[in-house]
Design brief:
The chain is α/β, with parallel strands linked by helices and 575 residues long. The chain has 17 helices and 19 strands. It has three domains: 216 residues, Rossmann fold (3-Layer(aba) Sandwich); 74 residues; 219 residues, Rossmann fold, CATH 3.40.50. The strands form four sheets. Strands 1-6-7-8-4-9-10 form a seven-stranded mixed β-sheet, with helices on both faces. Strands 15-16-17-13-18-19 form a six-stranded mixed β-sheet.
């Protein structure tokens, strides 16, 4: 969706709240519950970062907060002018960039109209003669003037140009159709439109997905200086560290929200310690359950051998046997009660960490012909790529960086065979015979939204392989999601499915375009760690600073379609 500005009430009627409050909110889609009994307050000065696994309801909560959807249960209070940036921009074929910009100005235009109307009300006939009407008219005008000043309605064009430049899309004419610009450019224009509208509260769903370093730094400064509440969901771990004053983890396993007042780095340390405690508790409880099971089946029913009957002591034997039986029965009851209580309240096993050691081995080795797996020579894609040479060796670990528009996605698409080189340029693309290449694309789209992940998986990998290696094997989708239509899944869940389809048949060359986009923070980190042990070559294109700072392979910088190798310990990586 495009940037959306929600005008919940007329500012001339009553003061607008300056905070966001979520009271007892529950929401579901059909029979699928997403959020349950959530309560949350976002104060005027809060910059709240939403984190959690894909599909837990981050985007849903943002839409509910923004008024784009109404909760099934509960109540939400928000400022009159609350701006919502959707994760994906939707548009009509006839829409232009300027149409998108103007959609963000709807609230400002309303402020201008209210200021004009309240000014006319001051001089309306009979107003000056009635003290009560005069007070009401003055109060209305004061509120309208204050709102107009806060939104800076008189400098819209200047701020529009500053925002467009700051987000890196100043070279695109405003009359350009939206279907003629890239998805990343549309997202940046939508973000510019939202910021231009100066809403009191900002709700942002993955705002940095298509931003390079300069644009991300520009947005960071905008949000830090924002005068109202800010709530954002982001995969950008460095951005969370720099911008969020509060973190909210939407974790269904904890029955709601967990609030953390600290940096994301500190949060990671706390989560790591919690994981250690969780694993220890799980192992301890499983060991205790095994001990109790043994007690129930063996130990509790053992009877001491010295209680055998003697010829002269029939009565005594009967008495002692009765005591033993009662003791055994008591031990059995106690063990059963303890077992049932522990079995009912035991912690779940911690989810497994993504590791390429747990997936099928890589593709069959290829005959070594002494050449790289892939090689580009004098590669040209008009206006997008201009490389003298580029090679991918069997053990490659390549990270391609660079600003937006540098050609990172184009390079990966050429290596994947999705984009052909310009024939007239005379360049060559060598690919070793039998080589299998697969790419995790930045934006995933499944042609038939009615198909389920299970059926897509079976169609893609084949029924026999799907049975031998189930979709559950990767830990990427939950049991409740694999039989829902893929169109109902979140963007992050769809990308998890796309990743599973690749891992089911690991290629010789694994290409990843912005791998941390749309994935949960936990999975993004696990994927990055696992890439070091991938059984094949890896080429990653990313602007993610967190990933770049921790990359252990070769780093290549792409600028204006040309590439240069950079040392691992360059100043930017060490920052």
């Amino acid at each position: 969706m495009r940037a959306r500005l929600v005008n919940a009430e007329d500012i001339s009627r009553r003061p607008s709240p300056t905070h966001i409050r979520v009271d007892g909110v529950s929401h579901s889609y059909g029979e699928h519950p997403v959020l349950t009994d959530l309560t949350l307050i976002v104060d005027k000065k809060d910059r709240l970062g939403l984190i959690g696994e894909n599909g837990v309801g981050k985007s849903t909560l943002l839409r509910l907060m923004g008024g784009a959807e109404a909760p099934n249960v509960g109540r939400i209070t928000r400022p009159t002018r609350t701006g919502l940036l959707w994760q994906e921009v939707q548009f009509l074929p006839s829409d232009t960039v300027n149409d998108l910009i103007e959609s963000g100005l709807a609230g400002l235009r309303g402020l201008e109209r209210e200021l004009d109307a309240s000014g006319l009300a001051l001089s309306a006939p009979g107003t000056s003669a009635d003290p009560l009407l005069t007070k009401r008219a003055n109060d209305r005008y004061s509120r309208a003037l204050a709102a107009a000043e806060a939104a800076d309605v008189w400098n819209v064009e200047t701020r529009r140009d500053e925002l467009i430049a700051g987000l890196g899309v100043s070279g695109i004419p405003l009359d350009r159709r939206l279907d003629e610009v890239s998805g990343g450019q549309r997202s940046r224009f939508a973000l510019a439109a939202l910021l231009l509208g100066r809403p009191v509260a900002l709700l942002l769903d993955e705002p940095t997905n298509h931003l390079d370093d300069n644009a991300t730094d520009f947005l960071r400064k905008q949000l830090i200086n924002w005068q109202g509440p800010v709530v954002f969901a982001s995969h950008d771990r460095a951005f969370l560290d720099e911008v969020a004053t509060v973190l909210i983890d939407i974790d269904p396993a904890r029955d709601g929200l967990t609030r953390f007042s600290g940096t994301y780095t500190a949060y990671l340390a706390e989560k790591a310690a919690e994981r250690v405690r969780w694993e220890h508790q799980f192992r301890s409880e499983q060991a205790e359950l095994q001990r109790l099971e043994y007690t129930l089946n063996v130990t509790a029913r053992e009877v001491a051998n010295d209680y055998g009957r003697k010829d002269h002591d029939k009565v005594g034997f009967d008495f002692k046997a009765g005591n033993v039986e009662r003791a055994v029965a008591r031990r059995v009851r106690n063990a059963e009660q303890h077992y049932l209580e522990l079995e009912e309240n035991q912690v779940w096993q911690p989810p497994s960490v993504l590791s390429f050691g747990g997936i099928p081995k890589g593709a069959q080795p290829l005959e070594d012909d002494g050449k790289p797996l892939l090689e580009l020579t004098d590669a040209r894609v008009a206006g997008r790529l201009h490389l003298d040479s580029f090679t991918v060796e069997p053990d490659a670990r390549l990270l391609v960086t660079g600003p937006n528009g540098a050609g990172k996605s184009t390079l990966l698409s050429v290596l994947a065979g999705a984009i052909k080189l310009d024939k007239q340029a005379g360049g060559t693309f060598y690919k070793r015979k039998g080589l299998r290449v697969a790419m995790l694309e930045q934006d995933v789209h499944f042609p038939d939204p009615e198909l389920t992940p299970r059926s897509i998986y079976e169609i893609t990998v084949g029924e026999k392989r799907a049975e031998a290696l189930t979709l559950f094997s990767f830990g990427l989708l939950t049991e409740r999601d694999i039989d829902r239509s893929v169109g109902e899944l979140s963007v992050g869940q769809q990308r998890r499915l796309a990743l599973a389809l690749i891992l089911a048949k690991p290629p010789h060359v694994f290409l990843l375009d912005e791998p941390s986009n749309h994935l949960s923070l936990t999975l993004a980190s696990e994927l990055e760690d696992a890439l070091g042990t991938y059984p094949g070559a890896v080429v990653v294109a990313s602007h993610d600073r967190w990933l770049r700072q921790r990359w252990g392979g070769t780093r290549l910088e792409l600028t204006h379609g040309r590439i240069a190798e950079r040392p691992l310990a360059d100043p930017e990586s060490a920052a």
